[in-house]
Amino acid sequence: LWKSGVVLRQGSCVNPIIIVANYLFDTLYHDIFQVDGGVLKEGLVSVGSKHPEEPDPLHPDIIGRLDNQYKYIPIDTSYYSDEEGDEKHLQRILNWYLQYFQNSTNGASILVPIGAIRALRHLGTFSNNRALVISGDKGNNNPEQFSGLMDPHIAVHGSFSLMVNYHAIGAWFTSRGGFALHNPQEEASLKVSTFMLTPEYFFEGPDEVAPDMYLGSSLPQLDKSRYQHFPHLLRAFTDFVDQFGPNDFFVLQKSLKEDLANPPLRTVASILKLSDWDPDVFFKFRDTLLAQTPTCGQKLRNDLCRGIPRLWANYYILDTDKDIAFEIGRFYYGIRDYESALKYYKESIAGVGEHHVTFHNQGLCYYSLGQPESALLHFKKALSMSAEYEKARSWIEKVQNDLAMQQQSVQVVPPPPPLAQDNAATVITPPVEF
Hints:
It is a single chain. By secondary structure, the chain is α+β, with helices and mostly antiparallel strands. Helices cover 43% and strands 14% of the residues. The protein has helices at 87-101, 114-124, 166-175, 218-227, 231-243, 246-259, 265-274, 279-284, 286-292, 298-314, 324-334, 338-351, 356-368, 372-385, 390-409; strands at 17-22, 31-36, 39-46, 69-74, 108-112, 131-137, 139-140, 155-157, 159-161, 164-165, 179-182, 191-197. Helix 12 packs antiparallel against helix 13. The longest helix has 20 residues, at 390-409. The model is unreliable at 417-434 (pLDDT under 50).
């Protein structure tokens, strides 16, 4: 572990662990299978390029011109022979697909995410096979999506990835003694599933589950009999994945961003609240927030200001091109909260690094706070970092002129009046301070 320096080993965790795998499994190892004419076949791939020659066979650009050739050879379901005790569980998965598609005239093409399964198996040893797994990725959990004989689609995006077979991952958890919860929504670019890993025979004894319980429609029934023991988990999955889940939210905010040229600020505030003040959502709608917040009603502005600390607490720097602290600073400057704006501009410098625009904006804040000397210092810093930045040059001239005028307008304090010669009170008016 990075902070504590503790090394996790087999059995080192007293409590069950929680594993979150967000867009991870699609880039790990996959095995290719087909069921063709009732025969299980292994897919073998020869990796090639569309170019006749490649001077550097390790050049990363080759990914964009892959030309793979596939062939399929018959195997039996005991294909996995060295999987650290997982052999019977992987055989049950292959048996399930062979039986399910055995009489299909269309056959089936199946990816088994063996890399994900091996990773989960290894992580499970830390807590003696007690774990809750939440995973979101592109993929399928309905085996009907595997119908038909076809080569796997490889998505190229700098690296490459494949569709995740969440059905197979769920079958592995169920075979190991746990269960799977799948979101049945099919029109979803992001599939979310939850899995429970328990020691084998946690729910039933060794003689209570017949071999055919891991086949056909018995498999989801076995899941159901087990997840009923976790009503709170089932309720949470129903509420936050089934009824309205991450994919639904993604579709909603994507439509709001792309289909409305100028979305209302109230709508943006609502989508921020629905996201629990997600920094990425804030960044996507920053133009609307910056343009409309300064002129909106006080109540709506108060609602937004109450959410900003939560948004900042949710922020974790992953992409320095999305400088959330800088955008929050702009937000506060727009509503004339210059002290808060300065706070977040400083956070921007600490987290992302120095930038001439950040120093320029700090100068504007100091100027608005009536601190021209500090403003001048920051404008000069901005210009020193970018000699072509005319805004900073103009403000330097303006502040220098302001300071010069201040110096010229300082009044000399007159000498005190002579002491009164009688008992009458003398009123002395203090000089005006500039």
